[in-house]
User: Which sequence fits this backbone?
């Protein structure tokens, strides 16, 4: 039996695989970007809703001096009402969006290893792999 074997072009197979991985990565990045933007907008919409309540407060004031004082108070109240957790989350979301733009999204900021997609699915603004996050939490406690 004499079978004819076709030579396998390994180089073109690798290129095809790399191209497929690029497409999958782009789809994943697009999905993550949408998640991050949605979460960011939810935080900002929540703040905007609170802002309307504070605007009504300003409308009830009559004199300019009172309005200035009220405005300063309202600015501080808005920041406080956002809450520390939301402020931190908003910052982390913005940083994650920056990493997407810089094409570094998914790389651990500490060790440089790839963060597993499952972690990014669960926490799209994660900047550290589980190992480095654990080390960071131990340092801070």
Assistant:
């Amino acid at each position: 039996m004499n079978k004819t074997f076709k030579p396998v072009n390994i180089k073109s197979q690798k290129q095809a695989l790399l191209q497929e991985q690029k497409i999958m990565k782009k789809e994943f990045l697009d999905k993550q970007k949408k998640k991050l933007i949605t979460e960011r907008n939810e935080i900002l919409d929540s703040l905007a809703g609170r802002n309307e309540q504070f605007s009504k407060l300003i409308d009830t004031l009559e004199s300019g001096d009172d309005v200035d004082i009220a405005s300063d108070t309202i600015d501080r109240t808005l920041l406080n009402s956002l809450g520390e957790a939301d402020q931190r989350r908003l910052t982390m979301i913005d940083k994650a969006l920056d990493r997407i733009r810089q094409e570094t999204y998914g790389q651990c900021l500490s060790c440089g290893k790839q963060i597993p997609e499952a972690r990014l699915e669960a926490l799209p603004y994660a900047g550290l792999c589980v190992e480095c996050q654990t080390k960071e939490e131990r340092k801070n406690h």
Summary: DSSP finds five helices and no strands in the chain. The radius of gyration is 24 Å. The longest helix spans residues 10-59.
